[in-house]
């Protein structure tokens, strides 16, 4: 019932984020792994920023990295991010792990309960921040005359606070901190910068202290939120556009840059229509991917000449020295590199459409296929669609925008994303969504859909 045979593991790196229970899980994991791997081949880094682990791995080449985290999920949750040969395990491997765990539970397997007396405390081998900072600051810097920026960072009481200030100050900027002491209780707000309410504290702080930009991080510092100097939230699609422009400048600054060599950028199914246009305008080739951490990292890794990739959720994936770096502190670093050249008003010139905040409604996964068939049929009759994309749910493109419906990767929920060029087009797509869901609900024997959150979103649209 093994998922990862011992001969394929090699050396192992274990670390955890700030969540309560992380040290105990790490200790249990260390002792379990010792039954399969020699202890000298297991490194335990303790509480650590995962971007630092990735940079450390460039030279160490661990066969397996296990990071104990629940990322931006609520207090009380915990879990594991598992990387084999620097890439996250795929969905099929995750399903196999879940299947084997269920088999053990069904067989009344006697699990070994945590005990201070039984489990050996793993020795902590600290990794110096300088390893990460020096690696980033040694990258080509195309800017010679720079703005000195005043930056506010909201660490969300996660692990970004361990390293972000030190890095940004060594870039030459002034840094003010909010919630940068790791605390798994997340006492100030939930650590998810993709939710506007979680950025309220940072928005006020930026304005009150006259900052040029605010950067917010989730619990394990792989998701980024951005606030401009006016305290306005910069939507993830506009941050992505900003990064496309920055990364193309950065790429062209390399001494071995070859303009004849194609550059590829990956974006996910939820992304704004502006993303594809921006990639093409920058002279790169766009590649559409399924949503999700492992899907995006695998896609960026597989495409020769891929520069980086980005998601609607605020995750960005950079190809660096043969690895894929999903690190919001590094994303912030690249944004600051751009702004220190052009100034803090740069965000004012980015394009945007109207977009409803992502809608998630309870919906049984087994019913999604039938629903999407119904939605596609109804769209053909009522929306005059330009195209359908079905690599991950159903995305319907019309002249004035798009509608995406897809099952959540992590919950029994339906995810809906709507973008439009005008208020009229936005309302048309939202009205269609409500009507088609209500129509399909009537066809079901039980009431599987909860539409209570859809109607209020009509008043929430606008630039983001």
Low-confidence spans: pLDDT under 50, at least 5 residues? 458-464
The coarse silhouette is globular
User: Per DSSP, what share of the residues sits in E-state strands of 2 or more residues?
Assistant: 15-25%
Can you tell me the CATH topology of the largest domain? TATA-Binding Protein
Average of the residue pLDDT scores: 88
Using the coordinates above, name the CATH class of the largest domain. Alpha Beta
Known CATH architecture of the largest domain: 2-Layer Sandwich
**Major β-sheet annotation:** 5 strands, mixed
Give the strand line-up of the largest sheet.
Answer: 2-1-3-4-5
CATH superfamily of the largest domain: Alpha-D-phosphohexomutase, C-terminal domain
Domain Alpha-D-phosphohexomutase alpha/beta/alpha: 3-103, 131-231, 262-344
Protein name: Phosphomannomutase
GO biological process, one term: carbohydrate metabolic process
Domain Alpha-D-phosphohexomutase C-terminal: 381-431
Could you explain how this protein is built, in words?
The chain has 464 residues and is of the alpha/beta class. It has 4 domains: 6-106, Alpha-D-Glucose-1,6-Bisphosphate, subunit A, domain 3 (Alpha-D-Glucose-1,6-Bisphosphate, Chain A, domain 3, 3-Layer(aba) Sandwich), CATH 3.40.120; 132-234, Alpha-D-Glucose-1,6-Bisphosphate, Chain A, domain 3 (3-Layer(aba) Sandwich); 236-327 and 337-349, Alpha-D-Glucose-1,6-Bisphosphate, Chain A, domain 3 (3-Layer(aba) Sandwich), CATH 3.40.120.10; 354-459, TATA-Binding Protein (2-Layer Sandwich), CATH 3.30.310.50. The protein has 12 helices and 20 strands. It has helices at 22-33, 50-60, 91-106, 129-137, 164-170, 200-208, 236-252, 273-281, 293-302, 328-342, 368-382, 423-443, and strands at 12-16, 42-47, 64-68, 80-84, 87-88, 150-154, 174-178, 213-217, 224-228, 233-234, 264-268, 285-289, 306-310, 316-320, 323-325, 354-362, 387-389, 394-398, 401-407, 413-420. It has a 5-stranded mixed beta sheet with strand order 2-1-3-4-5. Strands 7-6-8-9-10 form a 5-stranded mixed beta sheet, with helices on both faces. Strand 14 (316-320) and strand 15 (323-325) form a beta hairpin. Helix 11 packs across helix 12. It is globular, with a radius of gyration of 23 Å. It starts with 11 loop residues before the first strand and ends in a 21-residue tail after the last helix.
